[in-house]
């Protein structure tokens, strides 16, 4: 069974975080949520989440994917945390999947790990960064090799279903998607 790390930072976009967690768990993927700091995580719209573990407790564990929820200032907190960058670099070096939605692709751009790859992000989220080494597509969900990115809260379900398909295949995605009653 694939194992996915979802780091939760204060100010993360709760719609994205919860959608990713929920859909991946529906697919029976082993999801581990980890907070950057002790205590509840206060999201961008006031929702409070409790992570499974602290990031320090799982930093050396093996994962098949890391999926970064966006939102501000959550994505900025992820980008400022050297532990997140070490995890991303380790997973990318091991040819594992790195995923980010909304403003969180800024972590991949700032890190340089996605140089030479296609990405998408929330409009304007990357404006302050040098994006000359990546190709921004504007697609709702972009898959380029081991990098999966998406635009924002409205694409969270498509993004999460793509993560399932990437890890388990189209049949698993279809099995999770069917009871959701999407149009």
From TrEMBL:
Pfam family, one: DJ-1_PfpI
Gene3D superfamilies: 3.40.50.880
NCBIfam families the record matches: not_thiJ
GO CC term, one of those recorded: cytoplasm
The protein's name in its UniProt record: DJ-1 family protein
Domain of life, per lineage: Bacteria
Chain ranges of the DJ-1/PfpI domain: 3-165
PANTHER family per the UniProt record, alphabetical: PARKINSON DISEASE PROTEIN 7 HOMOLOG, PROTEIN/NUCLEIC ACID DEGLYCASE DJ-1-RELATED
UniProt keyword annotations, A-Z: Repeat
